[in-house]
Amino acid sequence: MLELVHRYYEENELEAKGVKVSVYYLDYEGNYQETKDYIERSMGKYPSFDYYHICMPVSASCGISMSQSTWLPWDPEHPELWLNPIPKGAIHLQNHNFPFFQVGMSDYDFQSKFCQWLHQETKAERTAVLVGIRAQESLNRFNAVTREETFSRFGMTNYSHRIFHNVFNFYPMYDWLFEDVG
């Protein structure tokens, strides 16, 4: 999606029109090597964009444990258990400037509050958060993106969801299959 956004940004001369693009990646610490390589290649790739590589101890779903439903990436009480070191230049517990942050807050709550914070910090009129998901992985994801209710949409755009005043998530790439990525 980053490549498509950049292409659209350039073709429509959005920088000259004062449109800002911020890219954020919430790093869950235990990533596949291909994901880590892609993030390393992508963060900072387009100098006209702002980048946020975030390594914060947020509560995340855990699908591999029978004894706990969540885990805490970048757990500050157990750095000896970290799967990887915090990447250079990343935002983490010791250098962040997020007044809303609490250790252990849910990753979904963090993402929503981060987008609100970014909207306010940049003094944006409107903020569109583009989220790439593969609905193939989850019926809940598919239903969330294709639902018919209209009270939280941006206009009549099905694949949108209001998360805050003038801040909307958009899911323009929800129907890609596993085979389409890679």
If you had to describe this structure to a student in words, what would you say it looks like?
- It is a single chain.
- It contains four helices and eight strands.
- The protein has helices at 2-11, 33-42, 107-121, 139-146, and strands at 22-26, 50-55, 60-61, 70-71, 91-92, 127-132, 160-164, 167-173.
- It has a three-stranded parallel β-sheet, with no helix packed on it. A three-stranded mixed β-sheet has the order 6-8-7, with helices on one face. The chain has a two-stranded antiparallel sheet with strand order 3-4.
- It starts with a helix and ends in a 9-residue tail after the last strand.
- The mean pLDDT is 86.
Number of domains: 2
What integer is the average pLDDT?
86
Listing every helix as H and every strand as E from the N terminus to the C terminus, the arrangement reads HEHEEEEHEHEE
Unreliable segments of 5+ consecutive residues: none
Structural class comes to alpha/beta
How far the N terminus sits from the C terminus, by CA atoms, comes to 13 Å
Sheet having the most strands: 3 strands, parallel
Could you give the count of β-strands?
8
The general outline is globular
Helix residue percentage: 10-25%
Which value, in Å, is the CA radius of gyration? 17 Å
The amount of beta strand, in percent, is: 15-25%
Helical stretch count? 4
Q: Please give the order of strands in the largest beta sheet.
A: 1-2-5
Assembly annotation: single chain
